[in-house]
Design a protein that fits this description.
Layout: E1 16-21, H1 34-43, E2 51-53, H2 71-91, E3 96-101, H3 107-117, E4 121-126, H4 147-151, E5 170-173, H5 180-189, E6 192-194, H6 200-210, E7 214-220, H7 242-255, E8 257-264, H8 271-289
Parallel strand pairs: 1-2, 1-3, 3-8, 4-5, 4-7, 5-6, 7-8
């Protein structure tokens, strides 16, 4: 497929840079290495002139006794991403990046950067899972299950953002597979969790209640119902439909300023899953990047 073809004519008038981060080291899935192929398959349909690819270490990495698997590689990728994100903002303060993973851990740098430059941002976390573990509670040590808790200011000290995300600026949508420790934290922190069938108005009300004027939108593809997408490592039943997800994205963009986004966890098992899932993924990219009307 032509690199400039699939998204031509849909891009926002605000400069959007596509940042492809084929990181797999944060994943605990048996299909983790397929995340590399997933990111690269999406990249083939992105406009070359607006796309940057982040270098990923060849080695798995070491946990350094931290309880975070492959921590050393995660630190390298985080630093590489932050360097590129800061460069983008220095050239055009109104520009924003759409991060293409890779595992959910690629959102560490993306959201860390947004928190450093945007005072009134809420994070909309479309994900079947909470990603709210710490090294102490995680059953796997995989960082993609800890990234939200880290952004909230709890976790491995070498990964914490300088500016933490306040819990009342986090809205989780379609989250339906919380471990007991995560569910307890959601209750104690007062985090808003909307069900997969949440209406656009309920999403807008939740963001408005936070006092935010801008949003960062994270999409783990497993937020979608398994009938909608097959190339994910941790599918969960009773998810959001692609049509409903596009409606939620569109509503959020019409009401609030979009300052960044991410699409993660595409781990196709084979070429057939790439062909099956690519149209849905491109539809989500289009919803995020075209001008709201």
């Amino acid at each position: 497929m032509p690199a400039e073809g699939a998204l031509r004519g849909t891009l926002s008038s605000v400069t959007v840079t596509f940042m492809v981060v084929p990181q797999w080291q944060g994943s605990g899935s048996s299909r983790a290495m397929r995340l590399v192929e997933g990111a690269r398959s999406i990249q083939t349909d992105l406009p070359t002139s607006r796309t940057r690819a982040i270098e990923i270490p060849l080695e798995a990495g070491d946990d350094q006794g931290s309880g975070v698997a492959r921590l050393s590689s995660l630190q390298i990728v985080r630093d590489n991403q932050l360097h590129e994100l800061r460069q983008i903002s220095s050239v055009d303060p109104d520009a924003w990046a759409l991060t293409i993973g890779g595992d959910c851990a690629v959102e560490l740098a993306a959201v860390t950067h947004v928190l450093s430059v945007e005072a009134d941002v809420a994070v909309l976390w479309f994900d079947a899972h909470g990603d709210l573990h710490t090294p102490e509670t995680s059953p796997s040590g995989a960082f993609h299950g800890m990234v939200v808790r880290t952004l909230l200011g709890e976790g491995n000290p070498t990964l914490l953002p300088e500016t933490a995300l306040p819990p009342d600026r986090l809205v989780m949508v379609g989250t339906r597979a919380l471990d007991d420790a995560e569910a307890a934290f959601v209750d104690s922190a007062g985090i808003t969790v909307l069900p997969p069938d949440a209406s656009p108005q309920s999403l807008l009300d939740a963001v408005a209640a936070s006092g935010a004027t801008s949003v960062y939108i994270h999409i783990d593809l497993d937020v979608l119902d398994p009938a909608e997408i097959s190339g994910v490592g941790f599918p969960e039943p009773f998810g959001i439909t692609a049509v409903a997800l596009v409606e939620l994205i569109t509503a959020a963009k019409q009401r609030f300023r979009l300052v960044g986004a991410g699409i993660t966890e595409f781990a196709p098992a084979d070429a057939g899953q790439i062909l099956d899932d690519q149209p849905t993924i491109l539809r989500l990219i289009g919803a995020l990047t075209r001008d709201a009307s």
